[in-house]
Amino acid sequence: MGGALRIGVIGVGTISGQYFETLPRLGGLELVAVADLDHARAAAVAAEHRVTPLSVDELLASQEVDAVLNLTIPAAHVEVGLRALAAGKHLYAEKPFGLTTATAAPLLDAQVGGFRIGSAPDTVLGTGVQTARRALDDGIIGDPIGAAVHWSSSGHESWHPAPAFYYQPGGGPLFDMGPYYVTSLVTLFGPVIRVSGLVSRSSRIRAVATGPLAGNAVPVDVDTHVTAILEHAGGVASTVTVSFEVWATKAPLFEVYGTQGTLLMPDPNRFSDTVSAWTIDQPEWHELEVSAGYRNAGRGIGLADMAAAIVTGGSHRASGELGFHVLEIMEAVGVASAERRIVELTSTVARPEAVPLSEAP
Ligand SMILES: NC(=O)c1ccc[n+]([C@@H]2O[C@H](COP(=O)([O-])OP(=O)(O)OC[C@H]3O[C@@H](n4cnc5c(N)ncnc54)[C@H](O)[C@@H]3O)[C@@H](O)[C@H]2O)c1
What we know:
The protein is an alpha/beta fold. The chain folds into 2 domains: 5-121 and 298-319, Rossmann fold, CATH 3.40.50.720; 124-292 and 327-344, Dihydrodipicolinate Reductase, domain 2, CATH 3.30.360.10. 29% of the residues lie in helices and 22% in strands. The protein has 9 helices and 17 strands. The chain has helices at 16-22, 39-49, 56-61, 77-86, 101-109, 127-137, 172-189, 301-312, 320-339, and strands at 5-10, 29-35, 52-54, 67-70, 90-93, 117-119, 144-152, 192-200, 225-232, 237-243, 254-258, 261-264, 276-279, 286-287, 294-295, 343-344, 358-359. The chain has a 9-stranded mixed β-sheet with strand order 14-13-12-11-7-10-9-8-16. The radius of gyration is 20 Å and the shape is globular. It binds nicotinamide-adenine-dinucleotide. Residues 10-16, 36-38, 41, 56, 71-74, 76, 80, 94-95, 162, 176 line the site of nicotinamide-adenine-dinucleotide.
């Protein structure tokens, strides 16, 4: 393969628009085809972006496609991913990596013949989380001791036009929002070795609020309030609360505590929010200057980082191994809750390489 990595997108629903905005300004990538189970939707999106609409089978068979960008719903991630790898394509997929580690593990095994897997979230490669990481590694708050995450809302049915998948396995606040926070925690402190947790759900009736399906009931088949404690290999303790049950809160989204101060983290679902610190040496909240990460990033930067690594032969940051480790952490929260025990993890992953302050590849 020479030149840009030619991208075929499978699944052109709500999130695809954000990728289509970013892809043209990322080097090393060229959008060539789109496919969706909903062929009319694929045709409309293809016309807008002047690419070819294909069926999923045609896209996977196409010699024009080097890599599949899998933006389907969580329940389809593994099946579509396995087919893409079997067809001799690189794969980059939205989160979560899969529904369970048992069903997702074959993806990692299918990563043969030089074909790679990348996994969202790639927000952690932006200036927000990377500046926080740099501050932490520079010792601005001393040695890290713990972190606290509190992400909550009343539920995605308030804004998503087809929110059913958020309430099926692979959704819920943990599998939907958890990847942003857990991936950030692994980026900051390294792999997790032990997990504890407790989950619950209300019997609240949920209904779609916007779009053509408005008023339709949304069946709930996931836990909607999740609390977890993660022990990182280096000893840092992270507490994580994610919930679709909270109407109002004043809890900080994400903080990191060290022996010399506290970092107020950026929103890890965004690329370039600011980072603030309070330290013993500077004992008031102050914003940190941007010091690391891809500037001008957007959804798809992880794929561009992977394309660059394919060319150089280096390793890419938003890797399948990281996505799988994050999946195992999230799965372990449910096991810990159901079995009332602490779960030891079997997978591990190296802290992904830091991103120096640079323009998007
Ligand atoms: N919506 C968001 O704001 C958002 C943000 C970040 C990440 N994500 C993630 O992106 C993924 C997609 O979310 P969305 O909100 O775009 O969902 P969506 O339901 O709006 O779109 C999914 C699309 O995939 C298609 N699809 C489903 N199964 C398929 C299959 N087997 N083959 C081909 N096409 C298939 C559907 O027809 C639909 O067009 C999810 O994993 C979600 O967690 C969504």
